[in-house]
Structures are given as structure tokens and as C-alpha cells.
């Protein structure tokens, strides 16, 4: 962390010197998406979009197949298909919303409202003294155990706040308690005598909603923690990547400034050398020209003396021949 702070501090100084941006600040608990940095809730909300749509398609397909197989349209299947028909298009539209924070908040309340309204309507539409066959009670019993656990896992992928999860689990626990009571009535457990096995079954059945509530809440908390740990790990990797990019840009700018300074120094040295040579040529130009004139005069004098000696020698030779 100390080295990271130094890199950020150096990068901030370079950016401040170049006049581009101020000090580079890297958020600690966000990940950058197409719209900018987002918190954990929005990140997970966007990441599980396809999972939510595929889950809705799967549940809707199962409901339709069951309806076609039994040739009966039950109220629970109608509620499931209606919930899927409401949730799926809104979830898909929320994924492409401009403000993802408000879209996540809307889907969070919608995810709570759908099961709560459905369970409340079922509790008011079914009378407490109504008798149902054992097969239907067993099916509702299994769904009453499976639905809250699956709901808690799905809620952790939205993610939904813990208070909403507790409210939904309480509703499912109340529904499961009613289903267990119907199952006992259908199986005549209340009038089975004082057998220890019957007493144990009644005890387990009465405590089962509490167990399911605890398991569902634990599954939601565990799934949320796993998602948050993954988010924090990815955020750390992204911060490390951004810091590496900033350090690389800083090194490139430093290298560019070093090359630029070296080029400027070379140009300054070349200009100084040209000025020095120009000054030398100017200072030595007059003496050299004087020396050239002196050498020319000396050469003319030497050539004149040689011609005179040759002429004298020729005259002496001609006089000697005349005497002979």
C-alpha cells in the first residue's frame, strides 16, 4: 500500500505538471463499467442479468409443461406464470436503464413485492379448515421447503437488502407452517394417539419453518458474502491494473521528457559549437588573409629574383662566347 501510494503521488505530480488532470484518485470499493464506477449492488445486479432471465424462462417453461401435462390450470401455477411475466420484461428493461442505481432499487422492491403479494393472496384465498389430498399437501410441502432457499439465493444475486430477505422468509415460513398443518390433517396425525413417533413428527413439523427460515437466511448471507468477496477481489485487480497503467504512463512520460531533454541538450550543444566555430572563423579571418598576401608577395619576389639570375647567367654566357 505504501508503494501504491507513492505511485499515485508521483502520477499526480506528473499530471499536475503537464496541466492535464489533477491528482489521480482511485476509488476503493467500486468497479468501472461502461457508465463509470459502480458499487457492489449495481455490479452484481448487472452481472446476473442473463441468469435472472434464464431462471424466469425456466420457471415459465416448467409451469406451462405442467399445465399441459395435467390439463389443469391451478392457481399456484397461474401466480407463478404471472410473476414471471411481470418480472422478466422489467428485469430486462432495468438492465439497459440509464440510471442503474434507481433500476436496481426498483427491482429490489419488485422482487420483495411479488412473493409477499403472492403468499398473502394465497393465505386469504385458501380457508384454514379446507381439506386437501395427501399428494397435493406433499407437493406444497416440498415447494414450501425449496422455494425459500431458492428465493434467498436468487435474492443474493440481485442483491436484495437483508431486511427484505427476512420479511420474505417470514412469509414463506408462515406458508410452510400452514402447509404442515394441512399435511398433518390429511395424514390424520392429530388423531394418531400418543405414539412417540407421532409426537416427534409433530415436533419436527412445527419446528421445520424455523429451520427453513434459518437455512434460507444462511444461504442468502453466504451467497452475498461470496459475491462481495469476488467483487472486492475484482476491484483489487482493477485497482492494481489502473495503478500499473498509471505507472506505465508515468514511466513513458518520464522517458519522453528525458529524450526531449536530451534532444534539446544536443541541439544546444550543436548551436554552441556553430557559434564557437563562427567566432573562430571571424577572429582568424583577418590574420589569415594578411598571411596570404605576404606569402603572395614573397612568391612574386622569389620569382623575380629567379628570373633575374637566369637572365644574368644567360648574358654572362653570351659574353663569354663572344670573347672566344
Topology:
Blueprint: H1 2-18, E1 31-33, E2 36-38, H2 40-47, H3 49-70, H4 75-95, H5 100-125, H6 134-157, H7 162-186, H8 196-323
Antiparallel strand pairs: 1-2
Helix pairs in contact: 1-8, 3-4, 4-5, 5-7, 6-7, 6-8, 7-8
Unreliable spans: 1-27, 190-200
Name the helicity range.
over 70%
What's the Cα radius of gyration?
A: 48 Å
Averaging pLDDT over every residue, what do you get?
A: 75
Q: Can you tell me the number of structural domains?
A: 2
Strand content: under 5%
End-to-end Cα distance? 121 Å
* Strand runs, count: 2
Name the overall outline: rod-shaped
Largest beta-sheet details: 2 strands, antiparallel
Strand order of the largest sheet: 1-2
Query: What's the number of helices?
Result: 8
**SSE order:** HEEHHHHHHH
Look at the helices and sheets and give the structural class.
mainly alpha
Protein name: Histidine kinase
Transmembrane segments: 51-69, 75-94, 101-121, 141-174, 195-222
Keywords: Membrane, Transmembrane, Transmembrane helix
Amino acid at each position: 500500500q505504501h508503494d501504491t501510494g507513492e505511485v499515485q503521488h508521483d502520477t499526480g505530480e506528473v499530471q499536475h505538471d503537464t496541466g492535464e488532470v489533477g491528482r489521480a484518485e482511485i476509488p476503493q470499493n467500486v468497479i468501472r463499467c461502461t457508465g463509470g464506477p459502480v458499487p457492489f449492488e449495481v455490479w452484481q445486479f448487472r452481472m446476473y442479468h442473463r441468469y435472472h432471465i434464464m431462471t424466469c424462462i425456466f420457471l415459465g417453461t416448467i409451469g406451462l409443461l405442467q399445465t399441459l401435462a395435467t390439463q389443469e390450470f391451478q392457481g399456484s401455477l397461474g401466480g407463478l406464470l404471472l410473476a414471471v411475466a411481470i418480472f422478466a420484461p422489467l428485469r430486462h428493461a432495468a438492465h439497459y436503464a440509464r440510471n442503474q442505481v434507481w433500476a436496481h432499487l426498483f427491482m429490489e422492491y419488485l422482487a420483495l413485492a411479488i412473493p409477499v403479494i403472492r403468499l398473502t393472496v394465497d393465505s386469504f384465498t385458501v380457508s384454514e379448515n379446507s381439506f386437501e389430498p395427501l399428494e397435493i399437501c406433499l407437493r406444497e410441502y416440498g415447494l414450501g421447503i425449496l422455494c425459500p432457499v431458492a428465493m434467498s439465493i436468487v435474492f443474493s444475486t440481485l442483491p436484495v437488502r437483508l431486511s427484505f430477505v427476512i420479511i420474505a422468509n417470514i412469509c414463506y415460513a408462515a406458508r410452510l407452517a400452514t402447509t404442515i398443518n394441512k399435511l398433518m390433517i390429511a395424514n390424520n396425525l392429530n388423531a394418531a394417539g400418543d405414539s412417540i413417533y407421532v409426537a416427534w413428527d409433530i415436533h419436527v413439523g412445527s419446528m421445520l419453518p424455523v429451520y427453513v427460515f434459518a437455512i434460507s437466511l444462511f444461504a442468502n448471507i453466504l451467497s452475498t458474502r461470496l459475491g462481495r468477496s469476488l467483487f472486492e477481489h475484482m476491484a483489487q485487480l482493477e485497482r492494481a491494473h489502473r495503478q500499473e497503467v498509471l505507472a506505465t504512463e508515468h514511466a513513458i512520460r518520464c522517458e519522453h521528457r528525458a529524450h526531449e531533454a536530451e534532444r534539446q541538450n544536443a541541439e544546444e550543444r550543436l548551436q554552441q559549437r556553430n557559434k564557437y566555430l563562427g567566432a573562430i572563423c571571424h577572429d582568424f579571418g583577418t590574420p589569415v588573409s594578411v598571411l596570404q598576401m605576404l606569402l603572395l608577395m614573397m612568391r612574386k619576389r622569389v620569382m623575380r629574383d629567379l628570373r633575374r639570375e637566369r637572365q644574368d647567367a644567360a648574358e654572362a654566357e653570351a659574353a663569354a662566347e663572344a670573347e672566344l
